[in-house]
Amino acid sequence: MDAHVAQLQMQYRNYILSLYQQGFLDDQFTELKSLQDDGSPDFVAEVLSLFFDDCVKLVGNMARALDQTGTVDFCQVGANVHQLKGSSSSVGAKRVKGLCINFKELCEAKNYEGCVRCLQQVDIEYKTLKAKLQDMFNLEKQIVQAGGIVPQVDIN
Amino acid sequence: MEKGFSPVGLRVLVVDDDPTWLKILEKMLKKCSYEGSLLLFLCFYTLGVHLLNFLCFCFNPLAVTTCGLAREALRLLRERKDGFDIVISDVNMPDMDGFKLLEHVGLELDLPVIMMSVDGETSRVMKGVQHGACDYLLKPIRMKELKIIWQHVLRKKLQEVRDIEGCCYDVGADWFTQAQFLGGGEDVSFGKKRKDFDFEKKLFQDESDQSSSSKKARVVWSYELHQKFVNAVNQIGCDHKAGPKKILDLMNIPWLTRENVASHLQKYRLYLSRLEKGKEIKCYSGGVKNMDSPPKDAEINSGHQSPGKSSSYAFLKATETDPKQLAPASVSDPTSGVHMPPKAKKTRIGYDPPNSSGVFDSLLPWNDVPDPLESKPPILYENSFLQQQPLPSQSSYVANSAPSLMQEEMKPSYVNEDEFLMPQDKNSTVILQDMDLSAPFSSNATSNTDSIPGSLNWELPEAHHSGSLDTDLDFTWLHGEHFFANSGLQNFQFQDYTSSTSLLSEPPPHLWYGNDRLPDPDEYTLMVDQGLFIS
């Protein structure tokens, strides 16, 4: 049993580290984790679900704005990008945030094709992150079910 | 008087359209307060009750209210008039610009506002400064940045206390420091003290401040009250004549004090000057170029992320300078002399415009001259200068106004001048307004000044002095003389100036006193030599 827990914990640790190493997450995620305490044990999960809901909404808005048959309102798209940038910075979604920076420039340049492509990338990226974090939460659940505690992963 | 233990928590209102951030900030702020409470207990045994009193105020479990819309936030603030101590707001909001919210809060409620954004662009940060934000935080926000927000509240409280108590508090020290500043070009002692937030020293040395309530009942300027205020101001007419006392009398509200009106007037002027800035900038071609200092300034302010404390300070400095410079002519209200000394001290900072706006250099000395300013009505200075040099009068005028504005929300400026180059530019434009103010100026000058020859010999059109600082400041009062805009005229003026040697020899002591203190004498000389004074 203990060996099993230890193995799960090791798996968990490696997984988290890989997420950071691959650039999916940054320091802000660490901060987010540090805010979680006994008083709010599901804090990270709650914040992340808020974030992903926001992603869906914003990506939807941008898709609609870019889908206009007439002139595309790049300001509108830009505003949404800005919001997404803010949101992604709140959870430490590094790749999404990086994409937003490019996206903003494309909006300012009114580069339609560029924007469309970037939006597709954003879409893929946040969904990938969502899947990865879901796996992480599953691992946590497994550890707890196996009787262990979720380890604090020190990134540095 | 010994203050009892009055545990009042810090009440924060967070406004952000991003639900993720709202949740995170709420959690972060609550976490700050838990840690703060521990600090409180430690302090109890080691420090005096005075410090403890303030800490209690700041560090007790804080109450966080979150809000997703600016209008909702305003509604909340207005409903619970004394219910919040500080507002943290995002810059981008769907229903209202964050800066607008900032202005409303500042005008109506006089609460410290911290702006935040994921965007750290220079122009945005500067905009925040201009609109009176206490700080500008970059997202993602760190705990250490939130931990120091209580300092903004405390600073405001201290200022309020000072407002109430009048000029008495620490005038000597202020002047001294200002002198140092002038001499050294960079504030050392006072600024550093504040910078290091040496609360203990500050609190213990200002016993008089502490004797008054550290938490005075804040006057909330409701819409109706503000309307009355505006009506009173408009009734009086020229802004520069609108002194707090007159406004107070006109408003006829028994419980309102002159200090309340004075501080609100400052804010109102700042607000108006900001509105007018757009118009002014077009009219004013008097050589005030937009310095490339803004980027520098921005750099300083943009780096908010890591050094939370230092970034706040940097921002504070910028903020300090800014109001000063944007100060609409406040006035030659001798009765508001009570505000003079502290203001004068503060105006010192940032009054170092680039050569192109050299005309304003002379303003510096005036601002820094503590005693004369204190003892003589502003108008006196203006008069004397007016007669000798348009520029100095202008500066004295500004000195008067700037200080009053400074008083309002300013912290002592202890930043080095460079940071304020940009605001200085604004200042220049504002000064123009101030100049305009002098409608009665020219006529009063003679009557008010004993020592200075009362004739305005300048070919300078008197019009420039007769402009009144109307709130809808437009430069038409210049009567087509464009006295700021006309550099040619400047030269012309200069000749007049030099020819009146008698006037030159007459400047009141404070004038020369001020000159000596010019941090950059070369600039001043340049100004004079080139006739860069605003005629």
UniProtKB/TrEMBL annotation, chain A:
Q: Where is the HPt domain?
A: 40-147
Q: Where can this protein be found?
A: Cytoplasm, Cytosol; Nucleus
**Does the keyword section mention Acetylation?**
yes
InterPro entries noted in UniProt: AHP1-5/YPD1 (IPR045871), HPT_dom_sf (IPR036641), Sig_transdc_His_kin_Hpt_dom (IPR008207)
Q: Does the keyword Translocase apply?
A: no
Q: Which Gene3D superfamilies match?
A: HPT domain
- Look up the record and report any one GO term of the cellular component aspect: cytosol
Free-text domain note = Histidine-containing phosphotransfer domain (HPt) contains an active histidine that mediates the phosphotransfer.
Q: What is this protein called?
A: Histidine-containing phosphotransfer protein
**Provenance organism:** Brassica oleracea var. oleracea
Q: State the taxonomy lineage.
A: Eukaryota, Viridiplantae, Streptophyta, Embryophyta, Tracheophyta
From TrEMBL, chain B:
Matching entries from InterPro entries are given as: ARR-like (IPR045279), CheY-like_superfamily (IPR011006), Homeodomain-like_sf (IPR009057), Myb_dom_plants (IPR006447), Response_reg_B-typ_pln (IPR017053), SANT/Myb (IPR001005), Sig_transdc_resp-reg_receiver (IPR001789)
A Gene Ontology molecular function term for this protein is: DNA-binding transcription factor activity
- In Gene Ontology terms, what is a biological process of this protein? cytokinin-activated signaling pathway
- One GO term describing the cellular component: nucleus
- Superkingdom of the source? Eukaryota
- Its primary localisation, in coarse terms, equals nucleus
A Pfam family that the UniProt record links to this protein: Response_reg
DNA-binding as a keyword of this entry, yes or no, is: yes
Q: Which residues form the Response regulatory domain?
A: 11-154
Q: Where is the composition biased (Polar residues)?
A: 302-311
| Residue ranges, annotated region (Disordered) | 286-311, 325-352
What is the name of this protein?
Two-component response regulator
- Membrane-spanning segments: none
